[in-house]
Specification:
CATH class: Mainly Beta
Mean pLDDT: 78
Low-confidence stretches: 1-6, 16-38
Distance between the termini: 41 Å
Number of strands: 8
Structural class: mainly beta
CATH architecture: Beta Barrel
Largest sheet: 8 strands, antiparallel, barrel
Amino acid sequence: MGDGMMQKLALLFAIAAACATMAAAQGGAAQSTAASSPPLRGELALDYSYVHTNAPPGGCTCFGLNGGSATFAWPVRARGFALAGDVTAGHAGSIGGTRSTLTLSTYTAGPRYLLKLGRKEGGSPLVSFGEVLVGAAYASGPLVLGQKPGVAFATNIGGGVDEVLSPRLSFRLVEATYLLTAVNNGVNQRQNNLRLSAGIVMHF
């Protein structure tokens, strides 16, 4: 992983730490209004996703995969916990000015925690969330060892912020996650990726 990717990951974790600090500061106010808040509901998010990665391993011929993701979340406790599942697919062509291509899909699930942040300027409520998801990755293209599709371990760690537009609809302002995949590349079998997403969230 190149220096540029290391800097981006460091920035991601710094943002996550700042969000955690804000969440702690808001914790008391959120608990005081919990009794009057409506019950949590399930949601389905449809996002555009950009995944920043690099090739070859150990270098930084950095490129991006463009695609989409679908995330489902269902509350399991009244205090903000939910079970989440995420499916993401992205594709990159003409990598490094060559004919090399890469298609990457991930299927992950795990716990999520939601917390109200207050209101955006103008009155719209904001909700943040953090999650740790694990599962599998599926990759195909010349960058995969042997040029055959590969199935490997994947984990998705991060969070995001939603703007609530109505009881049925929210806008995902941003979701930033550290996406680790372990696709066989013939060198270290590990890819440290940065995924950024935004889209709409439907509640039901």
